[in-house]
Amino acid sequence: MNKTEFITVTGFAISLLLHMTQTEVCPPSCSCKSLGEMKGLHVDCSSRKLTEVPALPVNTKRLYLQNNSLTSVPPGALDSLRSLEEVKIFDNPWNCDCHILYLKLWLEDISAHSPENIRCATPGPVRMKPLRQLTGNELGICKRLLPIKCLEFFWRDLILIAGAIITLILVAWALKFSKKLVCQINLCLYDSRGRLLGRHTSKNHKIL
């Protein structure tokens, strides 16, 4: 086995081990029960005074996170739970600023009724308001943050497009100029040959 094959096999083994670990290991702060024939886990992390969502097994079917001290969920933290069928995440002091947007959209993807019993704790203007009722006005900061990212990409793409257009114009101008230059050179050569031929002909007439 050469070095490349060894690195490939080692990387695959590590990835498989991490996947198995993530699938089977229950978070220390939670209790997990097998659902038997359903081939999944019931992960109960409720009433544990959690301030952040722990790393969860990917085969979680039921997830209970209610009655903790969660204020937000990092983007992507729950994306691996593809087989999730039930989630309870109420009775947490959710901070409904721009960072709550990921949780709101994720819950709406899981079930249209999921955010109904989840209420905001802060900031003041949206206190006790159901998460599902949040509008763009309450999440106004998202309107200011998201376009900044978009504008960065917009200006970068605009510069690239402008650069490409300028390059094409320069290439077209160079081709046109070179073609004109070639024509002028050929014309000059033709005139020179014509004059030489005329002189040679006149000399022959004088000799005769």
Instruction: Using the CA coordinates, give the radius of gyration.
Output: 36 Å
Order of helices and strands: HEEEEEHEH
Can you count the beta strands? 6
Terminal residue distance: 92 Å
Unreliable spans are 12-23, 145-150
User: Reading side by side through the largest sheet, how are the strands ordered?
Assistant: 1-2-3-4
Alpha plus pi helix count:
3
Helix content: 40-55%
Strand count, sense and closure of the main sheet?
4 strands, mixed
Tertiary shape: elongated
Structure keywords:
208 residues; alpha/beta; 4-stranded mixed sheet; two-stranded parallel sheet; 3 helices; 48% helix; 10% strand; elongated
Describe this structure in words.
This protein is an alpha/beta fold and 208 residues long. 48% of the residues lie in helices and 10% in strands. The chain contains three helices and six strands, in the order H-E-E-E-E-E-H-E-H. The protein has helices at 3-24, 101-110, 140-207; strands at residues 31-34, 41-44, 60-64, 86-88, 94-95, 120-122. A four-stranded mixed beta sheet has the order 1-2-3-4, with no helix packed on it. A hairpin with a 6-residue loop joins strand 1 (31-34) and strand 2. The longest helix has 68 residues, at 140-207. Residues 12-23 and 145-150 have low confidence and may be disordered.
